[in-house]
Amino acid sequence: MKLKMLSDKQKKIFTWWKNKEPCEFDGIICDGAVRSGKTTCMSYSFVVWSMLSFNHSNFAICGKTISSVKRNFLEPLIAFSREIGFNVEQKASKNYIEISSAKYRNRYYIFGGKDEGSAAIIQGMTLSGVLFDETALMPRSFVEQAVARCSVPGSKLWFNCNPESSSHWFKREWIDKCKEKRLYHLHFTLDDNPALSKKIKDRYKRLYSGAFYERFILGKWCDVTGLIYPMFKEKLHVARLLPESFERYIVSCDYGTVNPSSFGLWGLSNGIWYRISEYYYDSKKEGMQRTDEEHYAALERLCGDRKIEKIICDPSAASFITCIRRHGKFAVTPAKNDVLSGIRRVGDMLSSGKIKISSACTDCIREFSLYRWDDSAAADRPLKENDHAMDDLRYFVSDIYKGDDCFFVMSLER
């Protein structure tokens, strides 16, 4: 990272806590577009502030999971700390690091706030500061419990996040009330990151549409409505003719007994994944439920004599996963089932032209035109209808998606 190439807004992250003595703010919120540089600048400023302000103190760095904090946040933070002359000791098994200089030493604990039960892990601590990476993805109980731990005089709160819905608790209770909470608020767009070239910014703009474009590119807190995949166009994404050969084959499965079962056969050709064919069985429509063995027989017919790399299966379908393993013909792996992240990944793949659907996959194509957001829900959530091929599609994309590797460059672009 080149600190000399900073926008005015990025520079403010490094100076907000030292402009006045005492500082008029108890914390900072940085929200807005992806890749606008807010996270990296915040992490570096957090280290500088804490090492200049405290000695033998404890701090917390929080993300959705401990592994995501270590991967996306901690590695560049450690590299920066060493670059400016601090010593860093990692205690990976105990999930903390210690940063020291000739006179000062502080400890930074790593926490994951993935669910409501996470609040208990931070109870009882006394902190001089806490930094939240992707605050909007954490439960309110965890964030507020961590905030309550900051009881040391001079302690400060550091929040960063990309926007979610306009009714999200963090928007209503923290951003909208930042003045009364004495928080410094900085809102970022892609143009606030001088490290991004016009070509890269144009790429990001192509990858998103609808509400996700407004959130991740324009940095707006807005609600999702209507179709979940408005970027899907039959003219662009439906293949009338398939390639003659494929390099790899994978099958994705959404399993149902009362609800429909949907299996998709995928083939990779010249960097594009094609949904070659599908199995879709609706017991309500057919008037008869099928057993695990009957669904497995359909799976074998779908695969034919192709060499299948793996079956990606609905993680809740324990009995069907057991059935596949018992036959010993296919490797099977439970799917990743983070719905919103999966939907975003599918949108990325559609926008970049990395997946196409054979015209023979009529149920998948039909569901694209019906799969909608639940307007009555307080949080982003799809309607639980017309979603079975959409679920197996999401399982597939979440497993093979390499978006971070293909599109995202570390440094200030984060």
Polypeptide structure, described:
With 414 residues, this protein is an alpha/beta fold. It has helices spanning 8-15, 38-53, 66-83, 119-122, 140-148, 169-175, 198-207, 210-216, 234-237, 283-286, 292-303, 318-327, 339-351, 362-368, 388-400, 403-407, and strands spanning 27-32, 58-63, 87-91, 96-100, 105-112, 129-133, 156-161, 183-188, 238-239, 248-254, 261-269, 272-281, 310-313, 332-334, 355-358. Strands 3-4-5-2-6-7-1-8 form an 8-stranded mixed β-sheet, with helices on both faces. The chain has a 7-stranded mixed β-sheet with strand order 9-15-12-11-10-13-14, sandwiched between helices. Strand 13, helix 12 and strand 14 (332-334) form a beta-alpha-beta unit. Helix 2 packs across helix 3, helix 13 crosses helix 15 and helix 14 (362-368) crosses helix 15. The N and C termini lie close together (11 Å).
